[in-house]
């Protein structure tokens, strides 16, 4: 009987760990007992029904957002573990008229960047850099500490807090089994679980490409254009062939930059070649590259 009880507790903990905003729920559950939460371990409240109602009332005061609805959805059939462990307890920013987590969860682009790149395992600083790229975004008001707090309480994918590949799979299933929820988190579902290619992620979030990535893209485009050119000529479609020929010639021009550099250096140096290609792209198409 003891072994079965232990297995049930373990399964319940694994299920709990798949609740990505579990830390804000835990914090509010403990606050419902009147205790001041500091770092440490806390037992689940004995009067769970009253505690969950306290959490619900607190979350309903949050601004309308996908995150608020996600948290509320978990409260319908909430089964917390026997104890909670806190490494971070301070949520609100030190000087803010409106809590930073409210600003984050109500800004769709900001919240999606945090969601996707947290699931992909990127750092707080990487995420903040992406948020700073949002035109007219809230980046000037959000610090790396705000990102860290938000990820801990509302989007916790840290392995030290119990997150695992099992948690990730369970969370994805939870999002997908409800059409309205799946639509709300469509971007996260597509880009955050490894289903999208690196190029798709780069294009979607306008990530800067490395010189090696640019050089590789040029080679791939050249090879594809050559293949399509050959196919067009074989079927007698000379108009399409002429178009593919232009693409192939342009890509070969960039490739020759690399070939000439390799001859001068005596050996192929893809990094230097790519830098030359990047410089050429910038001259022709502008700072942002080709539109």
Overview in brief:
This protein has helices at residues 2-17, 22-31, 48-60, 66-74, 100-106, 108-119, 124-132, 144-153, 165-176, 179-184, 186-191, 198-204, 211-234, 238-265, 270-285; strands spanning 40-43, 83-86.
Could you please describe the fold and organization of this structure?
The structure is a single chain. The protein has helices at residues 2-17, 22-31, 48-60, 66-74, 100-106, 108-119, 124-132, 144-153, 165-176, 179-184, 186-191, 198-204, 211-234, 238-265, 270-285, and strands at residues 40-43, 83-86. It has a two-stranded antiparallel sheet with strand order 1-2. It is elongated, with a radius of gyration of 25 Å. By secondary structure, the chain is an all-alpha fold.
Can you give keywords for this protein?
about 290 residues, mainly alpha, 2 domains, two-stranded antiparallel ribbon, 2 strands
| CA gyration radius, whole angstroms | 25 Å
Intertermini distance: 65 Å
- Put simply, the count of helices is 15
Sheet having the most strands: 2 strands, antiparallel
**Approximately how much helix is present in the residues?**
55-70%
Residue-averaged pLDDT: 79
Spatial sequence of strands, sheet with the most strands: 1-2
* Overall geometry: elongated
Order of helices and strands: HHEHHEHHHHHHHHHHH
What is the tally of beta strands? 2
Q: List segments where confidence is low: pLDDT < 50 over at least 5 consecutive residues.
A: 1-8, 258-291
- Helix/strand/pairing category: mainly alpha
Count of the separate structural domains: 2
């Amino acid at each position: 009987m003891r072994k079965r009880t232990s297995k049930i507790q373990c399964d319940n903990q694994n299920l709990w760990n798949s609740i990505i905003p579990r830390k804000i729920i835990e914090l509010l559950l403990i606050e419902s007992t009147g205790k001041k939460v500091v770092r440490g371990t806390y037992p689940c409240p004995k009067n769970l029904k009253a505690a969950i109602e306290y959490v619900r009332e607190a979350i309903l005061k949050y601004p309308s957002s996908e995150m608020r609805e996600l948290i509320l959805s978990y409260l319908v059939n909430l089964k917390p573990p026997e104890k909670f462990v806190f490494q971070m307890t301070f949520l609100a920013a030190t000087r803010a008229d409106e809590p930073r987590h409210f600003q984050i969860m109500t800004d769709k682009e900001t919240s999606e960047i945090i969601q996707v790149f947290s699931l992909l395992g990127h750092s707080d600083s990487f995420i903040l850099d992406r948020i700073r790229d949002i035109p007219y975004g809230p980046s000037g008001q959000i610090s790396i500490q705000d990102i860290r707090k938000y990820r801990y309480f509302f989007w916790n994918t840290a392995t030290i807090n119990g997150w695992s590949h099992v948690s990730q799979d369970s969370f994805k299933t939870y999002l997908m089994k409800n059409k309205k929820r799946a639509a709300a988190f469509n971007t996260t579902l597509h880009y955050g679980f490894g289903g999208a290619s690196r190029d798709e992620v780069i294009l979607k979030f306008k990530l800067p490409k490395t010189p090696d990535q640019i050089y590789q893209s040029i080679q791939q485009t050249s090879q594809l254009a050559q293949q399509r050119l050959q196919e067009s000529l074989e079927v007698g479609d000379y108009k399409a062939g002429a178009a593919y020929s232009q693409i192939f010639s342009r890509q070969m021009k960039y490739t020759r930059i690399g070939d000439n550099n390799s001859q001068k250096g005596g050996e192929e140096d893809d990094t230097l070649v790519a830098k030359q290609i990047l410089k050429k792209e910038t001259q022709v198409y502008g700072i942002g590259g080709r539109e």
